[in-house]
């Protein structure tokens, strides 16, 4: 019994360097996405930012007092 010759079909995928969009969805409408995430999670954002702002303010005040302490 002879086998029938079946042509091999192959699919070749190629990407043009001019058509590639790397992470296009990430940058699309970014300000609105950030606003939406913060408005959904404003309590978590507050709990994250409050200690950071407090520590930064404390450090700035402490450094300023150190600068002025040698004057008196």
From TrEMBL:
On whether Protein biosynthesis is a keyword of this UniProt record, the answer is: no
Keywords tagged on the record: Electron transport, Membrane, Mitochondrion, Mitochondrion inner membrane, Respiratory chain, Transmembrane, Transmembrane helix, Transport
Q: Is-annotated flag, keyword Transport? A: yes
Q: Where in the cell is it found?
A: Mitochondrion inner membrane
GO CC, sorted alphabetically, is: mitochondrial inner membrane; respiratory chain complex III
Biological process annotations from GO = mitochondrial electron transport, ubiquinol to cytochrome c
Q: How does it sit in the membrane?
A: Single-pass membrane protein
Say where the protein is mainly found: mitochondrion
Please give the name of this protein.
Answer: Cytochrome b-c1 complex subunit 8
């Amino acid at each position: 019994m002879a086998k029938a010759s079946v042509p091999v079909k192959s699919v070749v995928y190629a990407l043009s360097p001019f058509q590639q969009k790397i992470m296009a969805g990430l940058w699309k409408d970014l300000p609105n996405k950030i606003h939406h995430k913060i408005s959904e999670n404003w309590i978590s954002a507050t709990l994250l930012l409050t200690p950071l702002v407090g520590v930064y303010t404390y450090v700035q005040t402490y450094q300023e007092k150190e600068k002025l302490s040698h004057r008196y």
